[in-house]
Amino acid sequence: MAKSMLEKILRKSENDNSIQVIDIFSKSATMKGNNNTSDMIRITVEFSRGSKIKEKKSIIIKLSREGVQQKMDTQVGLFHIEMLMMSDTLDKMNKLLGSKHRLSGKILYAQNENPVLLVIEDLASLGFRMADHMYGLDLDHSILALRGIARFHAASVALCEKEPKQKEMCSKGIFNDQLPAEMRDVLIKSTKNLADEVVNWLEVKKYSEKIAKLADHIHQIGLNATKLCEDEFNVINHGDCHANNLLFKYDNNGKPIDQIFVDFQICVYASPLDLLYFFNSSLSFDIIENKSDILLNEYLDTLSTTMKQLNCKTQPPTMKDLKDILKRRASYGMIIFFTILPFMLCCRIEANDMDELLSTGINSGFKSESYKKLMIKRLPLYDEWDLLDL
């Protein structure tokens, strides 16, 4: 990015027209296996103000990629959704919650074409970083995340009561009729590849055929499971609520003390689908097996308290309501378990990047022992819940 452009962005974001850019240092802000649909560049800008004292500031440039991912950006409007979310919806939600509970970083600049890009504050410079989630998040991280999700949802309810049009801005989500054929093909290929892997696992090989049969219908299953139902409790969902998109701040003993969200390209107004996404993509084996109710209680407590503080007219769901919603939409959680969780569990060296996945549908995470262990427990449940039958 040119010095003149960065100077313009900094002058506006810092509200100081005396700023002059001296130097720029840039490097990639993502690692292989993070599966971003955008290129992320971390830029450190050295600049002076009127007093000539040198300062440094780190910012993130998010650029639309070429190829299938760019097609997805265009057809689904991923960048457009994130621009609207960060410049309008999230800005208002953050103001409702106050500075103590920020949901997102600040957007500094947005450009709609040639190229499409966003400039966002660098949350790493504020002490936030990605958790180590090779084996799933532990209880401390998970509780912080559930409280964050609850505040996100509560603030969205308060905002949508004031501005009903906000619901329309988030009407697509990850499953929608505009999804490019290439992305549907990835879902199909990935599910078939999973079936091919499961046939080698003696404990659950009998489910392989059922998974293979689901493959051609997987997009429709997702559409049905995420469809808006007006008489349910509905919120604006983050929509891509996995461990890579939740950053944490830590105390001196390494304990997580704060959490913030990134990546708002597939936010969607619907039931609290983030819970199914997060539970099925980001938790450790022990948490999934033994601590789910603790997390749901944390979510409901924070949701109810925050909605009351924000004077929401809408009533929060009861635990029974919430569990009924999650049960009705359990097939969405299954799809996340099939397609997103393997990315979270595979090691960085073996991780596919997004281009590899789009071309082959092969996910090296299927080979993870952690994933196999979880699947052996989970597949009989899916079968019991009739999710593996068309």
Sheet-strand content, in percent, reads: 15-25%
Report the mean per-residue pLDDT as an integer.
87
Strand order of the largest sheet: 1-2-3-5-4
Given the C-alpha coordinates, what overall shape results?
globular
Number of domains: 1
Q: State Rg.
A: 21 Å
Which short descriptors sum up this protein?
single chain; 390 residues; alpha+beta; five-stranded antiparallel beta sheet; three-stranded antiparallel beta sheet; 10 strands; 47% helix; globular
Write structural notes for this entry.
It holds the Pfam family EcKL. The protein has helices at 3-14, 68-97, 139-162, 166-169, 181-198, 208-214, 218-226, 273-281, 285-290, 292-309, 319-328, 330-339, 341-345, 354-360, 369-384; strands spanning 20-28, 38-48, 54-64, 107-111, 117-121, 129-130, 235-237, 246-250, 256-261, 268-270. The chain is α+β, with helices and mostly antiparallel strands. It has one domain (70-105, 126-384). It has a 5-stranded antiparallel beta sheet. It has a 3-stranded antiparallel beta sheet with strand order 6-8-9, covered by helices on one side. It has a two-stranded antiparallel sheet with strand order 7-10. Helix 7 (218-226) packs across helix 12 and helix 8 (273-281) runs parallel beside helix 12 (330-339). The longest helix has 30 residues, at 68-97. The N and C termini lie far apart (51 Å).
Topology:
Elements: H1 3-14, E1 20-28, E2 38-48, E3 54-64, H2 68-97, E4 107-111, E5 117-121, E6 129-130, H3 139-162, H4 166-169, H5 181-198, H6 208-214, H7 218-226, E7 235-237, E8 246-250, E9 256-261, E10 268-270, H8 273-281, H9 285-290, H10 292-309, H11 319-328, H12 330-339, H13 341-345, H14 354-360, H15 369-384
Antiparallel strand pairs: 1-2, 2-3, 3-5, 4-5, 6-8, 7-10, 8-9
